[in-house]
Every structure is written in C-alpha cells, then in structure tokens.
Amino acid sequence: MSLFSHRTAFIATMHQKEQIIAPLMESALGLNCVISQGFDTDVFGTFTGEVARPASQLETLRMKCNKGMEISGLDIGIASEGAFGAHPTLPFLPANIEMVMLIDKQHDLEVVGQVLSIETNFAGHMVASWEDARQFAEKIGFPSHALIVKTGGGNKGELSSVRTLKTAAEFESKVIDLLKKHQTVYLETDMRAMHNPTRRKVIAQATENLIKKLQSPCPQCGTLGFSPTDVRLGLPCENCGLPTQKVIATILQCDKCNFIKEELYPEGREAEARYCSFCNP
Q: How many domains does the chain have?
C-alpha cells in the first residue's frame, strides 16, 4: 500500500493547476486532493510583475506548500512553481523550469519533481501597429494561449485596464484603442496555467517526475525520493574506446541518509563515434 493511500493533500493553487496535478497524484498514489477557492497564490509573486516573488523558486514553492497546509489543517501540501527565461545552456532559446513539490509533515518528507523544457511560448514584444500585434499574437498561439497587454515604457510598463486578452475581438479592439493613446504597446504571453496550455503540459511532466521520485525508496533507509542528483561522463566511443562527453553513469542520492548509488550505462554501453572528440574532432 502506498504511503499516501486514503490521505488528503492540499494543492496550493488559484490557477486551476489542480486539474493537472490531482488526477495524476490520485491515480498513482491513492491521494485525495483538495483546493480552497479562497487561497491566493498571487501573494507569492505574479508573472505580470505587480508582486515580486519573495524568494527563490524552490523556497517560494516551499512557502506555498506550508501556507496551504496551515490554512487547510492538512499534513500534506502540494504546489507548483514555474520560472521562465533563457535556457541555461542554450541561451538563444526560451525555457520553462517547472517544479512541483510535495511536503508530508507526518513523515518529515519533502520531494520535488522538476522539468526543464524548451516547449514554451514565453515571449514579449513591443508593438507600434496593429499588424505588429497581430503577427506576434499569431506567433505565440493566441487565442488558445492568452496575452497580456501593458502600456508605458518597455516590459516594465504599467498594466492596462485589461490585463488578459482571450478573444480575437477583444484583442483587436483593445490594442487598436491603446495605440491611439500611446505610441507603443507591450504584449507578453500570459504564463498563468489556466491561460497557457503549453505550460500545463510541462506542469504535468513535472508532476510525473515527482510521482516517480515518490515511488523510489532509498535502498538503505527507505525514505522516498531516491533519485538522480548528478551524472558521470566518459561513455567509451564505439570506434576507438576512448571516453566521450556522453553519460556513463547516473548518481543517485538520498536526501535523508546521504546514501549514494551509481547506475552505469543509462545511455547504453557505447557512444556513437560522432560524439567522440578523437574520431570526430
């Protein structure tokens, strides 16, 4: 029986993330997931900039979980927190780092699922004409993905009276009206989960990663969340046998007792010659 069977967890959200997270957690772990319509996650930061995130992505996630457990009186809290920006190793690509955390006070357990994805429409653009606005909207997938419009200087401009645009008629009317009053209008993608289907897919992936960790006990102490923390490079080349920059081993570590295990050959026992700096300099 799962550690979580027949227990109730609070999902800290106001942006319909429970529609993504709850079915996966309930099916895999036997949890009963609940929300509160009055729970305000905007106090932990908004994508539009009115409220700054109070701490790092991970710490903010922890704050959400703890606040959710506090107001609900439950001992399991679940929350999601996303971050958007340049990819850490491919800076010319936008990326979404999505984290989903579960805290179980009863068992002194904190586990985080995480995904780094380039599947995102995260973007912003200053427009000076309706045609510019229309092309940007088409590029980011509007209207299936909502837009936010700002007026003022650059992406720090003040929010207009309508912060989220979801229909073609509303979008055209609002942008044309604002361009009559301002030289430029700043458009950006609405990254809130209920308005961004692409982000919803990444939240689901992070939830699945969390579930995988919650189903992985440490071989030494049994604590859940035994998962990869590092890799070792050096998979031998199929042609010359010299080490390459491909992964030869995955390092798993327990957060509770620090037990470490190395799993060899996650990418196979040999690397293709095209990855070898000797055979393919």
A: 3
Evaluate whether residue 271 is within a structural domain: yes
Q: Are residues 205 and 239 in the same domain?
A: no
For the residues 28-44, what does the mean pLDDT come to? 93
Query: How far is 82 from 199, CA to CA, in rounded Å?
Result: 9
Which tokens in the block code for residue 205? 């992936």
pLDDT (tens digit, 9 = 90+) per residue, 141-160? 999 999 998 876 544 445 44
- Examine the domain organization and report whether 156 and 236 are in the same domain: no
Q: What is the pLDDT of residues 262-274, one digit of tens each?
A: 999 988 999 999 9
Q: What is the CATH number of the domain that holds 46?
A: 3.90.950.10
Q: For the domain that residue 128 is a member of, what is the CATH number?
A: 3.30.1490
Tell me the angle at which helices 18-29 and 197-214 cross, rounded to the nearest 10 degrees: 20
Question: Which residues span the domain enclosing 250?
Answer: 228-275
The two three-digit tokens of residue 203, written as one number: 């939240």
Beta strand 94-104 pairing with 109-117: antiparallel
Distance of alpha carbon 154 from alpha carbon 178, whole angstroms: 15
pLDDT tier at 1, thresholds 50, 70, 90: low
Q: If we measure between CA atoms, which residue out of 101, 55, 95 comes closest to residue 207?
A: 101
